[in-house]
TrEMBL record:
It comes from Scoparia dulcis. It comes from the Eukaryota. GO terms for biological process: coumarin biosynthetic process; response to molecule of fungal origin. GO terms for molecular function: 2-oxoglutarate-dependent dioxygenase activity; L-ascorbic acid binding; metal ion binding. Belongs to the iron/ascorbate-dependent oxidoreductase family. Keywords: Dioxygenase, Iron, Metal-binding, Oxidoreductase, Vitamin C. This is 2-oxoglutarate-dependent dioxygenase.
Length: 371
């Protein structure tokens, strides 16, 4: 911890953070560009500030042997008793962990593997082709950059990212890069189908009609995000993704076998090792809001690693920054005299815009919307 704090001391007469950030962004080569250039010491813009180091100092990793629930969806539509058991498992996981893994989810393993290959192909193609897509204009159909909060976060994360809104208004095929175009379109269709199934089960877990969350348009938007975490020469000084929670209703995460994802529960960091063939599901802030805190959106992070690259695909069920007038607040059927609404109503656009404006600062956006 001392090494981190000493190396991340912001008081430096020679360190002009704003200029360093701009110079890094102007390369349009991302973190991968640094690694390709043979960097052996990570630039100071990536160093974890002492404030964050202090905040996490009291948190141990895996004090207790926790294991994220793995839920098998096989046969769920043909056996009512089995369905009740699975709904109970999803309810328990959503109320306590905010995370669970699913197997027999209907997405072929070969398709998942090809999706990860597609992300790698995009990042590992010729730089001049890739740089065409580099932008901070979030209205573009395909956005590639490094760190959406590069200029506002306390420290840059050791990762590059691309994203597209695949629903409700998906890009035309020719607007997506050839390296990942076909598989991204195909995989997104499968994730939309899985998301509908999960939202039905989550509705039932809340004691609501099966289509309640879908009727609320929780499945109308899908944001596809491809992350690339290059090998890091000094992983103890930085993070792949800082502590945060997701600003979605629901997140479906596909990750490779390198690992590094951790969730923050009971004041400790808990490893979430990848399970073969499984997809990781987590409750987002918006689902915690509409469930009036019954379901939990848990903070998580990704460690930097000497091994790499780590590749993951996060699909967020949310219309994100697409302007919408629909208001979301705690579901009326869940409100009682003993359980009054804990949040004010908001639009998805307002919620996500607030989250984007503050970046990955380790503070839940939900606090801003508390009554």
């Amino acid at each position: 911890m001392e090494t981190v704090m000493e190396s991340s001391n912001p008081i430096s007469s020679k360190f002009d953070r704003a200029s360093e950030l701009k110079a890094f962004d102007d390369t349009k080569a991302g973190v991968k560009g640094l690694v390709d250039a043979g960097v052996e010491k990570i630039p100071q813009i990536f160093h974890i500030p002492s404030l964050q180091a202090n905040a996490d100092e009291g948190a141990n990793v895996n004090k207790v042997n926790f294991s994220i629930p793995i839920i098998d969806l096989k046969g769920i539509d043909n056996n009512s008793r089995l369905r009740e058991e699975i709904v109970a498992q999803i309810s328990h996981a959503s109320e306590t962990w905010g995370f669970f893994q699913v197997v027999n989810h209907g997405i072929p393993v070969e398709l998942m593997e090809e999706m990860l290959h597609g992300v790698r192909r995009f990042y590992e193609q010729d730089d001049e082709i890739k740089k065409q897509y580099y932008t901070r204009d979030l209205t573009k159909k395909f956005v590639y950059h490094t760190n959406f909060d590069l200029f506002t976060a306390p420290a840059a994360n050791w990762r590059d990212t691309f994203f597209s809104y695949m629903a409700p208004n998906p890009p035309k095929p020719e607007e997506l890069p050839a390296a990942c175009r076909d598989i991204q379109i195909e995989y997104s269709k499968h994730v939309m189908s899985l998301g509908h199934r999960l939202l039905v089960l989550l509705s039932e877990a809340l004691g609501l009609e099966p289509t309640h969350l879908i009727d609320m348009d929780c499945a109308n938007g899908l944001t596809f995000v491809g992350h690339y975490y290059p090998a890091c020469p000094q992983p103890e000084l930085t993070l792949g993704a800082s502590k945060h929670s997701d600003d979605s209703f629901l997140t479906v995460l596909l990750q490779d076998q390198i690992g590094g994802l951790q969730i923050f529960l009971e004041n400790q960091w808990i490893d979430v090792p990848p399970a073969p063939g499984a997809l990781l599901i987590n409750i987002g802030d918006l689902l915690q809001l509409v469930s009036n805190d019954k379901f939990k959106s848990i903070q998580h992070r990704v460690l930097a690693n000497k091994e790499g690259p780590r590749v993951s695909v996060a699909c967020f069920f949310s219309t994100s920054l697409v302007p919408t007038a629909k208001l979301y607040g705690p579901i009326k059927e869940l409100i009682t005299e003993d359980n009054p609404p804990k949040y004010r109503e908001t639009t998805i656009h307002e919620f996500v815009s607030y989250n984007f404006s503050k970046g990955l600062d380790g503070v839940s956006s939900l606090l801003h919307f508390k009554i």
